[in-house]
Write a structure and sequence with these properties.
- The termini are far apart.
- With about 170 residues, the protein is of the alpha+beta class.
- A 3-stranded antiparallel sheet has the order 1-2-3.
- Helix 2 runs antiparallel to helix 3.
- The protein has a domain of about 100 residues.
Length: about 170
């Protein structure tokens, strides 16, 4: 009878050890489970913000960096900031093409405006998406931002308008 009683007590001890381990490990698994969903929400929010940002940036660039309510979502209107790249790039290109010679003034007069229009404007777009932290981590909201920088396309024009603009830059009349 003592051998049977001894085996019974050993089984009870093993069950008690398993219960104690479960009490210790269960809160850790709960925290890991909540963290897993929080990290997933963060990644999805960041991807959504970056996708919206790229969409708005490309729509702005396509439309000469101007907001058009017909083709752009309303969130794009307040998300874009026009950034002047500067005339330094246009001057550097003109200088490389013409050097310091006699034709510098003539060529730079014709090219500078076109190069400034092509190289001189860009847009920075920033869109934020908020994620609520779990109560375990404070329950605050966290803003995840997508950012994108792109040059503006030139305004569509016609060949006669290009010729007229070029002539008005050269001619004093």
């Amino acid at each position: 009878m003592t051998a049977a009683l001894s085996r019974y007590r050993q089984r009870i001890r093993r069950r008690g050890a398993a219960s104690a381990e479960a009490v210790v490990v269960l809160p850790i698994f709960i925290v890991l489970f909540i963290s897993l969903f929080y990290v997933r929400d963060q990644v999805l929010a960041k991807q959504a913000a970056q996708e919206r940002t790229r969409t708005c940036a490309w729509l702005y660039s396509w439309n000469n960096c101007q907001f058009d309510a017909e083709i752009m979502p309303a969130e794009c209107e307040r998300a874009s900031t026009e950034v002047p790249i500067g005339a330094d790039a246009a001057n550097a290109v003109t200088q490389k093409l013409t050097g310091d010679g006699f034709f510098n003034d003539i060529v730079s007069g014709m090219l500078d405006q076109a190069l400034k229009a092509a190289l001189g404007r860009a847009t920075d777009v920033k869109i934020s998406h908020e994620v609520t932290m779990p109560t375990l981590y404070g329950g605050k909201t966290q803003a995840l931002t997508g950012e994108y920088h792109i040059a503006c396309n030139l305004k569509p024009t016609t060949a006669p308008q290009v010729a007229k603009d070029a002539w008005s830059r050269v001619s004093p009349f």
